[in-house]
Design a protein that fits this description.
Layout (H helix, E strand, L loop, with lengths): L8 E4 L4 H8 L7 E4 L5 E3 L4 E4 L4 E4 L6 E8 L2 E5 L3 E5 L6 H5 L3
Antiparallel strand pairs: 1-4, 2-3, 2-8, 4-5, 5-6, 6-7
The structure holds zinc ion.
The site of zinc ion has 8 residues, from loops.
Length: about 100
């Protein structure tokens, strides 16, 4: 008798856009994370994401090690970025206005 299976789908990192922007308040899809295992730096949008239940797991597109885990409960969001040794987040600046000035 086969054990019951849980449907797990594979997504790209854009799947995490909603819950991550909810926490950080900035766009994280263009953020670049460095894999703690292989050292490759990849944009969050390129992470290989598995889920959704019981949460999302984002894996390195290079070595497949776990970069992040994200679990949403009714009153909290659990975020484990322990597979990422550094995360570079681009933040909006007013420099676009300044660049137009002579
Ligand atoms: Zn890696």
């Amino acid at each position: 008798m086969d054990a019951p299976t849980t449907a797990v789908a594979v997504y790209d990192g854009n799947t995490l856009a909603g819950p991550l922007s909810e926490v950080f308040g900035v766009e994280l899809m263009t953020a670049a994370g460095r894999c703690r295992s292989c050292g490759t730096t990849s944009q969050v949008a390129t992470f290989r994401v598995y889920g959704p239940a019981p949460g999302f797991v984002g894996r390195c597109p290079h070595c497949e090690d776990v970069l992040l885990r994200l679990v949403r409960t009714p009153d909290a969001l659990w975020l484990d970025f322990s597979g990422v040794s550094a995360l570079r987040i681009l933040i909006p600046t007013d420099s676009a206005d300044e660049e137009q000035q002579p």
